[in-house]
Amino acid sequence: MARINDSYLKLKAGYLFPEIGRRVKNFAEANPNAKIIRLGIGDVTRPLAPAVLEAFHQAVDDLGRGESFHGYGPEQGYDFLINVIIDKVYKPLGVSLKSSEVFISDGSKCDTANILDIFDLGNKVALGDPVYPVYNDTNVMVGRSGEADEKGYYEGLVYMPCLEENGFLPELPQEQVDLIYLCFPNNPTGTVASKAELKKWVDFALEKNALILFDAAYEAFITEADIPRSIFEIPGAEKCSIEFRSFSKTSGFTGVRCALTVIPDGVFGTNNNGEKIQLNKLWNRRQSTKFNGVSYPVQKAAAAVYSEEGWKQVKETIDYYMENARIICEGLKQAGLSVYGGVNAPYIWLKTPQGLSSWDFFDKLLNECHVVGTPGSGFGPSGEGYFRLSAFGDRENIQEAVTRIKTKFT
Ligand code: MLT
After folding, report:
1. How many angstroms does the Cα of residue 337 sit away from the middle of ligand 1?
2. Average pLDDT in the chain
3. Homologous superfamily of 8-47+309-409 in CATH?
4. Residue 95 has pLDDT above 80, yes or no
5. No. of H helices and E strands in the chain?
6. Per CATH, is 53-307 categorized as 2.40.50.140?
7. What global pTM score does this model have?
8. Is residue 130 within 8 Å of 189, Cβ to Cβ?
9. Which residues, including other chains, have CB under 8 Å from residue 100's CB and lie 6 or more apart?
10. pLDDT tens string 377-389
11. Does residue 170 carry a pLDDT above 80?
């Protein structure tokens, strides 16, 4: 009989969002008349921008004609999309990239997980707590950790608590680490890092020969001036960082699937003999072997996000979600709750009232307000006593949810 990867058995619970889905399904079956408002998983609700949709349609039509048909595309992505990203996304930030440094993929979730393929198990990994669960769980899955302790910390991984006391910003690890996950704007806390804060990390990584895995999936939601949108805005980051970005939240592609990973040529790891090896080359080899690229119509649709018309429309939707975030923050503050995030990120991180545990608050909110959120403890032990609400809903639902919460908790 096939022997399994025992590391999977170390995982404490099911993946967070399916577990929430299971509880909500049970509740909905038992309460068929309840109008449930879902602000749990950060899934977009607004339709695709018209300019994006048009490009998508046209590209599908291309596939229906012999002269414009496309079969396999480049595993790394089409140049028409890569060049748009370099010119429209990175150049305005003062970041110059070569097309071979950008890899198009079907999602940042997959990329942040798959990147582990190119690293030795002996690397020490540091990650935030709370954190996007994928970073933690995929390191457990590949066998980089021991068992979890009673709090939920896996042996061998280095956790950096992000607490109210430190403004939900991780502190530099005291021990030698090799891979450091950073996510700004942060999922789940909505915190952002200033340039000075990111510089601290880049300097640390350069000094300690560590690599930063920077998840910038929510950069499009930054509203305040001077907050960096890319780690590569920080000098030296091009020697010690990999950046992940996504079209999912930026332009409503959670169901369409498109993302990108940037690995500058100046980023190296070492082999068994201590020789320096370019990570870009390894990732290219990995993608060419295990991935066949994102479909042509999806990449055409993604390129249209950054057309003049496309970006105007996409930005309207981003603003719509951020107005939702403002409504949630304001309403919860009026209800006397302690609220964080929601200014540069589509997530609101709140302290559970009455000292309730995250899951108890989840159940209370579901049972009494028919509102679904995400328990903070699902993102790590330091998330206990916190709760995340997503601003990706319809305005009417957001207003209704806030009214219900205010009525219950004021
Ligand atoms: C979340 O709710 O944290 C995100 O939707 C998860 C994801 O992007 O995979």
Report:
1. 24
2. 97
3. Aspartate Aminotransferase, domain 1 (3.90.1150.10)
4. yes
5. 12, 15
6. no
7. 0.97
8. yes
9. 76, 265, 280, 284
10. 999 999 999 999 9
11. yes
